[in-house]
Every structure is written in structure tokens, then in C-alpha cells.
């Protein structure tokens, strides 16, 4: 019996699990899949900037139980292990799993697929925080803080930060109900990888919603003072000031969930070194997709594309050893939702019509597709036989 072990059930892992079960494990003799995850639920991260706003989206729009899908599979062909990978021994083809109850277990594999994703810094629920229960607990804490706050501060100038500031500005700032600040360390919102026309429109739309923009500034200190959080701000010119808030929402990046991997498999930032065949560098029996790998930026579209590639490529690989090379996209694509009525974005070096981005993403933030992606019946870009 050949064992395929999959670590992770996120945006990249969930569709791959179902499709590899259908095209390989259930179709051919001699295969079994073991899925390892610290959570029993799939989290839909794309909608989280709207979810943190109280009353906008309920929990079950972004968290989906996996048991409905997994119970379809015969136990002799499929096993779900609730826990997280604590160490990996590639020489022995073995993964050590820390089980939720405190025990540990060693799982042998013939093929390993790493789809462990990443975690948001500062224990923010932009990504899963351990398990579904902890994520929901933290989310509800933030919603309560936002609800009672007079002043809200969003920090970090990336897509999550801009979208969160937009959602809060749309709900509160433009009506004068609450002050919403957006602190970021560039002159314009978003990464310099985004074209200036998109960054300037993001700035303009946030200003129209009366979000108070604080550019070219970093947060260098965070202190709790009763029910308030006091932020120490430092400008690029060296100036310092403080800002008091009752709801602080940092969006300052992610950390790859790769602590289990041997140091020699990782690059200097902790990502697994990933080849264009989506293998771990130097290991023909280990595949890596999504945020855990270093081949592409940590974006949903990259994770989706990598999962889609392996879904197509692995049947031939298991049949005759052939493995098509993954083509890294050289055309940057960004879709930025700014509140519930505005959006902007780019494809390559071309700015997209805001209405198009709003229609495709901004209306629902993908919550209309999320249940099918959680069930593995589609990716962001492809729908499979149900």
C-alpha cells in the first residue's frame, strides 16, 4: 500500500485532497491518503477583512466543517489525523504528528504534500490561529473591540490592511460614527509592486470614506493602558508620536507554517525551498504548494494556481512518473476591495475597471464560492465534477 500524506486543508490543500482521492486513491488499487490538520474546519481568509466588522458576515460564511466531505471516503483508503506536524525526517519518510490530546504519532509516507500555509503575525485571524475554536474566539474578541471603540487603527499597508481599512471606513468613518486610522510605511497604500494608479485610487477611495491615512510611518511600540492601546509611531523622517485606540488591527505580514521541516529545507525566511516542479528542493517525494513554499509570493491566487497544477499533473506522475513543470506567473494580478461599493485592481501593468473587480470579488468576497472550495469541488479558477 502506497501512502500519500497531505499536511494542511486550506485554500490549496482542500481541493487537492478531494481531486487526488477521486483521480488516484479511489480509482487505483494500492493507494491510501492520510490528511493531517490541526483543525476540523476550512477557513476562508479572503473575506476576513469584512468579517472583523461586527454584523457583516456570520461565522459560517468563512468556516466550514470538513467531516461532510471526508466521511465520503472508505476508511481503508482515507484517514484524517487531527494534529499538527512537529517534525519531518525525509530520510525515513516519516512525519511526527503532535495529536491534539497531547500524544504524538509517526506517519510514514511514500509521497508527502505540504500545504500547511502561513499564520498572520500578532495572532490575528486573517489566517487560521491553530484551530477553528481559537480562531473564532479571537475573531469575536476583535469584533467586540471594534463595536465599542471610538478610534480604530489598522496597521500595515498591504492588501489585507487596505481592505480592512476600507471595510471599517465604509461602515463607520464615512458616517462619522468612529475614527478609523490606516498606518502604513510607504508614501502610498499597498506594496510598490502594485502600479501607482491603483495605489493612488486606493488612497483616494479611503479618503472619500474619511479614513485618516498615516503614510510613511511604522508602529514601533504597543502598550496597553486600561481599555486603550497606545501605539508609538515613528515616521521615516525620524519623528515620533503616539496614537490611542480601543481597537488595534495589525496586518503586518505572515509567517510560514514550516517549523516542522529540517533547517536545510528552508530558505532564510523560513519558507520551504521549492522547485518549478513544486517539489521541495532536493526531494523527489515531497511536494509543496501555497504559502509554505518560496516559489511565489504569499497570495491566494498563487496557492490556487499551484494546487490546480498538481491536481492536473499528479495522475500522470503516479501512473508513469511524468511530471509537468509548473509555470510561474509573470503577470502580477491584484484585486482590492474598498468597502462594499468600491474596488480597484490590476492585471499585468493594466489597471482594471473598479466595477469589474467589485462585481467579481467585492460583492461577496468569495463567500459564494467558499463552500465548494472547502469541499474540494472547485478552486478559484476551476470547477470539477461534483
UniProtKB/TrEMBL annotation:
The keyword Oxidoreductase applies. SUPFAM superfamilies: FAD/NAD(P)-binding domain. The keyword Transport does not apply. InterPro entries: FAD/NAD-bd_sf, FAD/NAD-binding_dom. Signal peptide: none annotated. It comes from Moelleriella libera RCEF 2490. Residues 3-293 form the FAD/NAD(P)-binding domain. Belongs to the FAD-dependent oxidoreductase family. Keywords: FAD, Flavoprotein, Oxidoreductase. GO terms for molecular function: electron-transferring-flavoprotein dehydrogenase activity; flavin adenine dinucleotide binding. GO terms for cellular component: cytoplasm. This is Pyridine nucleotide-disulfide oxidoreductase, FAD/NAD(P)-binding domain protein. It holds the Pfam family Pyr_redox_2.
Amino acid at each position: 500500500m502506497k501512502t500519500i500524506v497531505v499536511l494542511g486543508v486550506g485554500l490549496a490543500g482542500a481541493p487537492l485532497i478531494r481531486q487526488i482521492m477521486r483521480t488516484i486513491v479511489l480509482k487505483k488499487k494500492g493507494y491510501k491518503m492520510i490528511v493531517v490538520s490541526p483543525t476540523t474546519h476550512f477557513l476562508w481568509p479572503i473575506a476576513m477583512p469584512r468579517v472583523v466588522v461586527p454584523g457583516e458576515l456570520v461565522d459560517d460564511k468563512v468556516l466550514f466543517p470538513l467531516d461532510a466531505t471526508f466521511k465520503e471516503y472508505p476508511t481503508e483508503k482515507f484517514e484524517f489525523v487531527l494534529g499538527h506536524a512537529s517534525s519531518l525526517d525525509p530520510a525515513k519518510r516519516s512525519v511526527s504528528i503532535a495529536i491534539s490530546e497531547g500524544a504524538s504519532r509517526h506517519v510514514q509516507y511514500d509521497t508527502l504534500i505540504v500545504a500547511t500555509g502561513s499564520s498572520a503575525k500578532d495572532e490575528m485571524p486573517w489566517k487560521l490561529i491553530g484551530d477553528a475554536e481559537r480562531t473564532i474566539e479571537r475573531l469575536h474578541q476583535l469584533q467586540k473591540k471594534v463595536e465599542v471603540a471610538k478610534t480604530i487603527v489598522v496597521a500595515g499597508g498591504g492588501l489585507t490592511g487596505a481592505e480592512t481599512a476600507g471595510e471599517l471606513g465604509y461602515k463607520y468613518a464615512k458616517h462619522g460614527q468612529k475614527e478609523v486610522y490606516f498606518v502604513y510605511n510607504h508614501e502610498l497604500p499597498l506594496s510598490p509592486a502594485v502600479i501607482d494608479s491603483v495605489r493612488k485610487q486606493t488612497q483616494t477611495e479611503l479618503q472619500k470614506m474619511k479614513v485618516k491615512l498615516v503614510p510613511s510611518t511604522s508602529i514601533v511600540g504597543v502598550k496597553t493602558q486600561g481599555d486603550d492601546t497606545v501605539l508609538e509611531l515613528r515616521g521615516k523622517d525620524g519623528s515620533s508620536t503616539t496614537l490611542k485606540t480601543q481597537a488595534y488591527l495589525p496586518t503586518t505580514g505572515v509567517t510560514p507554517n514550516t517549523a516542522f521541516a529540517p533547517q536545510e529545507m528552508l530558505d532564510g525566511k523560513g519558507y520551504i525551498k521549492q522547485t518549478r516542479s513544486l517539489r521541495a528542493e532536493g526531494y523527489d517525494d515531497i511536494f509543496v504548494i501555497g504559502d509554505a513554499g518560496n516559489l511565489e509570493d504569499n497570495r491566494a491566487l498563487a496557492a490556487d494556481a499551484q494546487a490546480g497544477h498538481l491536481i492536473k499533473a499528479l495522475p500522470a506522475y503516479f501512473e508513469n512518473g511524468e511530471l509537468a513543470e509548473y509555470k510561474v506567473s509573470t503577470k502580477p494580478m491584484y484585486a482590492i476591495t474598498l468597502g462594499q461599493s468600491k474596488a480597484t485592481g490590476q492585471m499585468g501593468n493594466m489597471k482594471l475597471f473598479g466595477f469589474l473587480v467589485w462585481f467579481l470579488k467585492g460583492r461577496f468576497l468569495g463567500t459564494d464560492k467558499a463552500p465548494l472550495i472547502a469541499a474540494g469541488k472547485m478552486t478559484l479558477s476551476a470547477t470539477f465534477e461534483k
